[in-house]
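Pipeline run #58 for the internal structure catalog. This entry was flagged by the ingest filter as a single-chain record with no existing model, so it goes straight to prediction. Upstream metadata was stripped on purpose; only the residue string is passed forward. Reviewer on rotation: M.T. Logging verbosity set to normal.
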Amino acid sequence: MRARATAAALLGALLLGAAAVHAAGPAAGAAAGTVTFLAGEASRVAADKREPLALGSAVYQGDVIETARRTRLELKLADASVLRLGPVSRVELDAAAFGASPDDRKVSAKLRVGNVWASVTKTLGGEARFEVKTENAVAGVRGTTFRVDASKDKSVLVKVYSGTVAVAAGPIPRPEHGGGAGGPAPGGQPGARPERRQVSGPQEVTREQWERLVGNMMQVKVAADGTPSEPEQFALAKADEWETWNRQRDAAAR
């Protein structure tokens, strides 16, 4: 009897240990997506551990996805949306939550450098969110297909191929101080002593003040200092292999 009890206790301890390891690993949460195309080398980094990706590999919320040179990677998310990464790209999958309906999803990917192409299923509504962030811009989806290019100098290019994307960007502007010693004072003459006056401090700028709505076949550029351009039209470029490949993949998936 004592031997049986000891064996049972040992078995119970082993099962508890296995359960603890299972809970601590990536399988503890549902996968955010899987690799459906890979040409080249890519990896996911989670808990400071690097793991090479292969066709069929799962990725999870919180992962950092990196691609090597001459690499193209496609991730199919749990809601059937697609994220594709170009060569030498680094994306942090900050949020990947999927509810029972498209209006329940929250996806947020931070592009540190490189290229991301997003093809989002259905138009989002309600509290849903699908966005690609960079150092100086946030591209929030209100449509279906767009790309974000983040350069090493922190400038950003957002192109919309279908639907509408809201691009929020820009630093908080600082108030300009008028006049200086020897210069024209406000309302005075050159060389006059500047009038001492109190100026207001930095003011908060709302998101709406710095948001650009970018429509179908329109693009917006965000400078390295966070200053966005006005949206402008663009044409498909035959020499842009990244654009051509993504459009072909999108067409084949329809």
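catalog note: The helical segments are 2-24, 241-253.
catalog note: The CA atoms of residues 89 and 114 lie 4 Å apart.
status: ready for reviewer M.T.
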